[in-house]
Amino acid sequence: MQAIKKVVIAGGGTAGWMAAAALSKLVGQKLDITLVESEAIGTIGVGEATIPSILTINRLLQIPEPEFLRETKATFKLGIAFENWRKLGHRYIHSFGDTGTGCWAAGFHHFWRRGLDEGYSKPYGDYCLELKAAEANRFGLLSQQKVNYAYHLDATRYAAYLRKLAERAGVIRVEGMIDQVVKTETGDIQSLRLADGQNIDGDLFIDCTGFRGLLIEDALNTGYDDWSEWLPCDRAVALQTESVADPIPYTRSIAHGSGWQWRIPLQHRVGNGLVYCSDYLSDDEATALLHRHTTGKPTTDPRLIRFQTGQRKQYWNKNCVAIGLSSGFIEPLESTSIHFIQNGLLWLLLMFPSHGIADSVRNEYNAKLRREAEHIRDFIVLHYHLTERNDTEFWNRCRTMHIPDSLKHRMELFRETGTVYKLQDDVFAENSWVQVMMGQGLIPEAYHPIVDQMSGPELSQFLAKNMEKVEQGMSQLPDHTAFIRRYAQL
Length: 490
What we know:
The chain has 490 residues and is α+β, with helices and mostly antiparallel strands. The chain has 15 helices and 21 strands.
């Protein structure tokens, strides 16, 4: 096996520069790292909502949070509000927090479920600090109680910030268009030939070229698993607008007749977009619909994005690792785009092939990333399939479609017993599945028998104490915007 001394990253944007920063700062002291990008090629740049895992990569890169907030114009995110998903006029929040306190055998929702039968339970979300804080437009960092959060951020500014970190750590940026991918006799990538004649050779190549997959697909013919039978949306139109109010600490996901709309509030503007299925809505109709449902003056022209949901058959093929959109795409409903970049990088860092690429390492990497992507796929499909909407052809299709057996099993298990397990390589915790399944209308028919060890008064008191903990935390949280201004020293 050939030792890895030269790493070449094809493409910039969030994926490319996160890869460059992570490799250079965390394993790169003996690596020669080059990033090739062209200013003539734009980036997607709409992955502006995140999930709490982003804190992991920022902390590994030793990014000071106040500086990060200033540089990326970020706000805090406590969850996602889903509007019109279960049915028209219905709304619920999938928060990042833990809801209540369970026991070793049963999560809190089992206690809540019995309390529902006996008239003790308040709405499930009332037992979650992050959810109540989101509704009240509050945020803070508490010393006595953990607050789970992520960010809304300007993806273009984030990429620029990561570029500064990477270049300080020794990454060399080369401006240029990739004209040809040169391969060895064994089929590995040997070098990238640029349009100006430069030849960039390497031992390990990172494909961050977006949907095209210039290295992983065009050069290596890796193959793609198409998930459009379960996730039929294939277009998005994105638009930025001026802010007309203080930013709220959650993302809004608003279902429409043929898809859904996002609203992501930053410090200086709002990111808007409409994800839709082109079988039911034209591009012009989608653009007009988005304009009708945004507030504030547009600051950009609408940008059309075409995509196909799915994943590469291999994330790591020969000496090429696909990171970000080149590895696959699951629509942005649960804000997992930047997580996919980060997760691919973290596993690459853990398995980094300093002494050469072993088949066992490559196979393990692919297995882990494919399992996680399939868990996330099921979670996204859940939102579409578990609905009461029958007002359009699109929603009728989603409600009645065949779903993966893995998701069918999770739904049946929860419906019949209230049980939901945190599976290996599943980024979404038990409470995320509970919040979405119940938010979409799936209430368990039963609860774990351990709950019956409590008497009625004991259960009532237990639920009340969980509520008190939330109220105590809420009393200490300041206004979201005021906290950002003070914490980030704006």
